[in-house]
Structure of Putative FtsX-related transmembrane transport protein:
Amino acid sequence: MIKNYLKITFRNIMRNKLFAAINILGLSVSLACCLLLFLYISEQLSYDEHHGERLVRIISHLTQKDGQKLTLGSSSIPIAPVIEAEIPEITNSVRIMMPSLFGSRDLISYKDDAFYLKDGVVVDPSFFQLLKFKFIKGDTENPLPHTNAIVLEAKLAAKIFGDGKVIGQMIKLNSTTGPQDYEVTAVFDAEAYPTHLKPTYVVSMENAGWKPLIQRFESNWVGNNLITTYLQLNQQADIATVENKIHEIFLKNGGKEMKELGVTKEMKLQPIEMIHTSTDLDMDVFEGKSLVFIQVLMTIGVLILILACVNYINLATAQAGNRAMEVGIRKVMGVTSKGLITQFLGESFVIVLISLLFSILFAEMALPVFNQLVNDPVALSSANLWTTGKYLLMFLMVTGLLAGLYPAFYLSSFKPVQVLKGKNKDKGVASFLRKALVVFQFVISIVLISSIIIISKQVNFIKDKDLGFNKEAKLVIPLSTDEAASSYGVLKQKFIANAPVQGVTGVQAVPGSSVITDLFAYKQGQTMDDGIRMYNNRVEHDFFEFFDIPLLSGKYFEEPEKDTVISKVILNKTAADRLGYTPEEAVGEMLYFDFRDMKFQFRIVGVVHDIHQFSLHDEIDPMMFQLAEGNYEENLILNVNTNNYQELLATLESDWKQVLPDTPFEYFTLEDHLGKQYASDRNTFDLIKYFAVISVIISCLGLYALSMFFAERRFKEIGVRKAMGAEVKDILIMVSGDLSKLIIIAFVLSIPISIYGMNIWLETFAYRITPGVGTYLLAGLVTIVIGWVTISYQSIRAARTNPVNVLKDE
């Protein structure tokens, strides 16, 4: 029986080669897209599973005086040891601090080599008990046996030592607390498992350099959320109950501090496997993948697969008339409806199986391009063979049923008597379904095309928007060590002597970077209860002239003046507005900030135009710029004008080495730095662009096949009309009319869907475009033109048919 069904299936494929090829091509491309997307999604959602169950992170919800809400992936230093001791459900805890939080970069030295590091961590000794890593060398039971031990990531160890001895070697690490010597005690592979935490090195908080810094903040329960805290819960622990207990302990120890600062703080527990997809937290040190982005990819994959299934259903039901006689004869010969359903479902499974084999080839071919788009490579290899096989089996079952179920029931429902008398007609339900599915296909295509247009406009808007400062030709040289920062003045003088360097300034936080210092400033006659939250960025006196930031009132900073009591500040306009001042009124006024029985005083000397210090996803915040001392900065910024960029860089590096011979020279352009803020948005744009094109191609494949089928069914009608005097244009309108109406209906239906979906995405930007009607009209017009081009060949072919050739057998 099965052999007979297979014979019939392959004979049918050979009899209708073009339709079969269209089905197989559409399904193959769709399945290849789905395979790549689902493998990528599967990997993203599997992060941190290897660490084990019941491991959670503390996240902090802060509500500021002005009502602003912040959700931090970090917490304060003293919390973990106290709650572990007082809450029995917590069996273990570990705190992790990132030195990069303090604005410095780690410099590692071994013999004559020195280079910068990133993503190093300072941890409690219990770190490797809670978080699991694959060790390659060293003591796996106790990787941090003493306070001067350092555990290295495998790639870093290979970079430092090559193939030589690693364990027991001494290296120098210059970090936030200054240079220290460490003994390498173990090496681990950070890439062995998918995890949100991939440190380049691990050292202990008990280290003599780090311990005093930790102790400095051990009484701060509310502010200084500098660490990431992980808790191991026992199997009986209820997360909500543990959260309540943590809050009670926090109120007992930090309630007074919370009242002094005028903020409220509440801590929640987040399962570790959710960290990688939690990209909506403020000042989170870990870079993950947005859950919305993953959901968008999953939706795109499913929609593309549905489009291919729609093609199969449309073509199968459209060809029903050609197979009606086969169904009638088989029923007369005793084949039941159940047997016919089995046969037609089997045909769909065979076609899907053939498509699956091609899809693997297409996926392998598309893999390099796909990996560039997602910036997180996936592979078709033995390592994920089980996952790949699981998805292929799922695609076979789901697609086979989805594509084949309705055609199987539809074809098996034909009445033998009507079929054998030639009275079987295209049923109204099937005809309506075909039209509805064509509309559905083009609704998806138009929505995706409109998304391309809108995202492209928003990306260009971001690229071209005036940020309030001149970003052109700016070269940033980080001063990542204390020695480099203290050499700011000397380096500035050396660099400014170069002809192509037209200006040099210094700043704590480069535009486009986070400002880690904030405070609550209040006016004369007010208290901290009236304070507004401001970011505080320390800048050189010539910072504003350097960046062409317009002055609204007052004056720019002059040369640094020694004043240890009152600090001079310049406000942005938003800060002046929030304080209730006009720019002119703010000049000369005093601001105050109280903390731990100390009063900090600031005198406003000027107000400048707002600049976008942060991403355009965020609104402009109140900001003060504090005059720096002029001899210690964290970043040097050069205004350069040269056609020979490499020659200038070589000269700058030479000057750098004269001052800092043992410190590597590094740089980046400000434009590149600002552009990195929108990398995920560009990735989203590129992905939707590629998959929109694929969806349109799949839709057009089905539309082409349907137009060919409909034209062939109406050839005799066309012959009669032409014999009666109909012109080519009349025939053309008749043949393409029905399908054109469906495309227009799809266009009308797609507009509200596009508006809704794009508004959700655009709302993630504080500064965004407002798409006009023209955007959606353009998307619809593009799709209509593509649709008409697709059906035009068959329409013209039908219109030019010689009526003699069609009617001569009548």
User: Anything to note?
Assistant: The radius of gyration is 34 Å. Residues 330 and 336 are 8 Å apart (CA to CA).
